[in-house]
Design goal:
The protein has about 400 residues and is an alpha/beta fold. It has 2 domains: about 80 residues, Sandwich (Immunoglobulin-like); about 240 residues, Rossmann fold. It is about 30% helix and about 25% strand. It has an 8-stranded mixed sheet with strand order 10-11-13-12-14-15-16-17, sandwiched between helices. Strands 3, 4, 7, 8 and 9 form a 5-stranded antiparallel sheet that branches. The chain has a 4-stranded antiparallel sheet with strand order 1-2-6-5, with no helix packed on it. Helix 8 links the parallel strand 14 and strand 15. The N and C termini lie far apart (about 80 Å).
Length: about 400
C-alpha cells in the first residue's frame, strides 16, 4: 500500500513538472482569458445624482442606435464613443418605473445589461426604476414583506395546467387560522401573469399600504388571462377570439376561484371577493364582474378596452346584470383612465352611461396615458377602498 502511494506521489509531481500546453493555458482563467471572455461591461441604466438616467449599449458594428422610453414620446438618438459604446442621458419629469428598449439599426432589443425585464408576450422592454428623494408607495420600504408564489392549476375547460401568481401578505399561512378576502387582478393584452408584480409592483404597494393601515390584508391572485400562446404551443386549433370574454370568465369562475378556495384559507362570499384589471383585463373584469354580482361586490376597471356603444348595449342585451341588481349588490364600482390614454373616450362613455342609469361609481381621470405608471396609481387607490 505504501509503495503504491509513493508511486502516485511521484507521478503527480512528474505531471506538475511538465510544460503547460497552449490548450491548458486557455483553460485557465488568467486575466487575459477573463478579459476576452468577459469584455469590460457597461453600466445601464446608470442613475445619476441629479435625477437623470444614462443608458448605454455596446454595439460596435451598429450604424444607428436609438432609445425608446416612456419617459418621453418617440425615440432619441444615442451617440457612440471610441469603444463602440452608445449612450444617452435623459431626465424624467418625475421618479417612476419606466419601460424602455434600444432600437439598433431598426431592430428593437431589451437592455442586455439590465436584469429587470418587462414580462410580455410580444415586446421585451427593460425597466428603469428612477427613485425619488423619499420612498414612494411602489418602492421597497422597511416594512414586513409578503410573498409572491408561483402556482399551477389544472384547467379542465382548456385541458392543461396553467400558471398564476399569488400575493399573500406578511405572516399569512395558507393553512393557518387567519382568513382573508381575495382580489383577482387581471393584466393587459399581451402581458402575462407576472406583469402586475414585476412591472406593477403590486406586492410592494400592498406591503406598504398594509403596514400603514391604509389597506386591508388580502390575497391577490394574478392569473394568466390569455390562453392563446399556451394553446398554440400545444397545437390546439380553433384559436381565441381576442375580444371575447367567455373563456376568461369561465376560467375565473370555474377554475381559478375553486383552486384558490381549496388551497388558501379565504372568505368565499361576494363581499370578500374583488376583481380588477387593466386594458384588456379591464374588459374581462367588466364582463366577469358586472355579469356576476353574486360573486363580486368590488369591481375595478382600469382603462378598460371597451368601444363604441358597448356600455349601453351590454346593459340592454343582458351581457351585464341589470342596473337595479348592481345598485343593490355592488359595494364599489371603480373606473380609472388617464386623460392621454387612447381609451379615454371609452371610459368617458362608460362613465356617462353609468351616470345616466343612476349607478353610483367612482371615475378617476388623472393625466398620463395607457401606461403601467398609471396602473400603479390605479391599484393603490382601488386597494385602499375595497373590503371595508
Amino acid at each position: 500500500m505504501n509503495k503504491l502511494y509513493s508511486l502516485l506521489v511521484v507521478a503527480l509531481f512528474s505531471m506538475a513538472a511538465l510544460p503547460i500546453s497552449a490548450q491548458q493555458q486557455e483553460q485557465r482563467l488568467t486575466p487575459e482569458v477573463m478579459a476576452r471572455l468577459f469584455p469590460r461591461g457597461v453600466v445601464s441604466p446608470d442613475y445619476n445624482k441629479d435625477g437623470s438616467v444614462t443608458f448605454r449599449l455596446r454595439a460596435n458594428d451598429a450604424t444607428k442606435v436609438e432609445l425608446e422610453c416612456q419617459m418621453f414620446a418617440g425615440t432619441k438618438e444615442m451617440t457612440k464613443d471610441a469603444d463602440g459604446v452608445w449612450s444617452i442621458t435623459v431626465t424624467p419629469e418625475q421618479p417612476d418605473i419606466y419601460p424602455y428598449a434600444f432600437v439598433v439599426d431598426g431592430t428593437k432589443i431589451a437592455d442586455p445589461n439590465n436584469m429587470f425585464i418587462f414580462p410580455n408576450e410580444g415586446f421585451k422592454y427593460s425597466l428603469a426604476d428612477v427613485r425619488g428623494a423619499s420612498p414612494s408607495v411602489q418602492d421597497m420600504q422597511n416594512v414586513p414583506h409578503g410573498k409572491i408564489s408561483y402556482r399551477y392549476y389544472h384547467s379542465k375547460g382548456l385541458g392543461f395546467d396553467r400558471p398564476m401568481c399569488v400575493y399573500t401578505p406578511a405572516g399569512y399561512d395558507p393553512a393557518g387560522k387567519e382568513k382573508l378576502p381575495v382580489l383577482y387582478l387581471i393584466h393587459g393584452m399581451t402581458d402575462t401573469y407576472e406583469t402586475w408584480f414585476k412591472v406593477g409592483r403590486v406586492n410592494l404597494i400592498m406591503d406598504n399600504l398594509i403596514a400603514q393601515g391604509l389597506a386591508k390584508r388580502m390575497i391577490i391572485v394574478m392569473p394568466y388571462a390569455n390562453p392563446a400562446p399556451e394553446m398554440a404551443q400545444r397545437g390546439i386549433k380553433g384559436g381565441v377570439n381576442i375580444m371575447g370574454t367567455d373563456i376568461f370568465t369561465n376560467e375565473i369562475l370555474n377554475e381559478v376561484i375553486p383552486f384558490i378556495e381549496s388551497n388558501y384559507n379565504v372568505y368565499t362570499d361576494a363581499f370578500n371577493r374583488a376583481i380588477a384589471g387593466f386594458s384588456m383585463g379591464g374588459r374581462q373584469t367588466l364582463a366577469c364582474g358586472l355579469a356576476n354580482p353574486d360573486k363580486f361586490m368590488w369591481v375595478g376597471a382600469m382603462a378598460p378596452a371597451i368601444f363604441g356603444q358597448e356600455p349601453n348595449q351590454n346593459f340592454e342585451n343582458g351581457t351585464w346584470a341589470s342596473i337595479e341588481t348592481l345598485q343593490k349588490s355592488l359595494k364599489l364600482f371603480w373606473l380609472g383612465c388617464g386623460s392621454d390614454d387612447f381609451l379615454i373616450q371609452a371610459s368617458r362613455d362608460l362613465d356617462a352611461s353609468l351616470t345616466k342609469r343612476g349607478l353610483k361609481h367612482t371615475f378617476y381621470n388623472p393625466g398620463g396615458g395607457h401606461t403601467w405608471m398609471n396602473c400603479r396609481d390605479y391599484i393603490e387607490l382601488f386597494a385602499k377602498e375595497i373590503f371595508k
